[in-house]
Write a structure and sequence with these properties.
heterodimer; A: alpha+beta; 2 helices; about 15% strand; B: alpha/beta; 8-stranded mixed beta sheet; 13 helices
């Protein structure tokens, strides 16, 4: 360890970077851990139905499952394309 | 009442077998009759770490298949007569272990032993699943490193959903963090995740920190659990861990780089 290392503390350390990355990843993996197993299939089928009427992209639909002590919420989010005119 | 402890991590190479050998020896040295089981079928190594590799006659799979009795397969440790080792089989048959067979052997061991330590293989395949399935307590061995922490969290998810206790809606497995290969000086330099960082991410009860130590390789070279090297830092760390697990109140050590310039110059080892 050189003397210079003592003065480099202002630079973001690799450990704090590791912690930040892990926190995001672990939170994401934990939330998907409790999801019901039918979720991907539900998403696929919903997309098929919607595509019958509107031309949406694969990633335009998101299904989120949230759980807290008192209730479970299934959130469905569909982004419609800008130019789509329903006439 | 016997307790089953699983030593697990998800990731390989973090120190599961070293830990299993050390804590099993520690529990036995404290006067509790202890069995330690190698669940790594096909890649057994606990026998080597315990220094009994030349005394293996029958193994775990032989007992499950009824080719040997439990007493024939159990190897009494040469250093402690309250400690017994059940080696894994070297078969390449992945399905050699069955849940029913493992359950039966554990039930039999429970009659005679106070602690049963299950040394899990790496990964989340059958061996790892069976090692944790019947557990009462889980020792999660983690290195202060991103992939190890992530895999530990994954194992926590599996423990809370796929274990016997989870399936039968019993009180959940008690989970403990054992942070191994820790380098306080690197933490100080911001090069390594700290104990607090890892605890914040995993939110586990810390049973102890095992410092990165030369004594671990020395111990495995000679086939003696590192806890028997009472002068070594790792040996002392494991002794603390066993004492804390048994309910003793011991302050945590090996977390801070206490040895400053003064210590370095005047050699406190």
């Amino acid at each position: 360890m050189s003397l210079l290392d003592y003065f480099k503390t202002s630079k973001a350390s690799s450990a704090s970077l590791a912690k930040e990355r892990l926190q995001i990843l672990v939170a994401h993996e934990r939330s998907s851990r409790n999801q019901p197993s039918y979720l991907p299939q539900l998403q696929k089928e919903l997309l098929e139905v919607i595509r019958k009427y509107i031309n949406v992209e694969q990633d335009a639909i998101s299904v989120n499952f949230e759980q807290n002590d008192t209730q479970e919420t299934l959130e469905l989010n569909i982004v419609l394309p800008d130019h789509q005119k329903t006439t | 009442m016997a307790r089953i402890i699983v030593v697990t991590s998800g990731k390989g190479g973090v120190g599961k077998t070293t830990t299993s050998a050390a804590i099993a020896m520690g529990l036995a040295k404290k006067g509790h009759k202890t069995a330690v089981i190698d669940f790594d079928v096909g890649l057994r190594n606990l026998d080597l770490i315990m220094g009994c590799e030349r005394r293996v006659v029958y193994d775990f799979v032989n007992v499950i298949n009824g080719e040997a009795t439990l007493n024939q397969a159990l190897i009494r440790d040469k250093n402690c007569n309250l400690l017994y080792i059940l080696p894994a089989s070297q078969t390449r048959d992945k399905d050699a272990l069955s849940q029913e067979g493992v359950g039966k052997i554990l039930d039999e061991l429970k009659k005679d032993f106070k602690y049963i330590v299950c040394d899990s293989p790496a990964g989340i395949e059958k061996g790892a699943h069976l090692a944790m399935y019947f557990a009462d307590d889980a020792f999660i061995v983690t290195n202060p490193e991103v992939s190890s922490v992530r895999d530990s969290d994954r194992m926590l998810g599996i423990l809370s959903s796929k274990s016997r206790r989870a399936e039968q809606n019993e009180e959940p497995i008690k989970e403990y963090l054992l942070l191994s290969r820790y380098s306080p000086d690197r933490v100080k330099l911001g090069e390594m995740l700290s104990v607090d960082d890892v605890q914040e991410i995993l939110s586990l009860h810390l049973l102890g920190v095992i410092p990165e130590s030369k004594s671990v390789l020395n111990a495995s070279n000679s086939g003696t659990p590192v806890i028997l090297d009472e002068k070594s830092d790792a040996g002392q760390a494991y002794a603390d861990i066993v004492a804390r697990y048994l309910g003793e109140d011991r302050p945590h050590r090996f977390i801070d780089d206490k040895q400053g310039l003064f210590g370095k110059l005047f050699g406190r080892k």
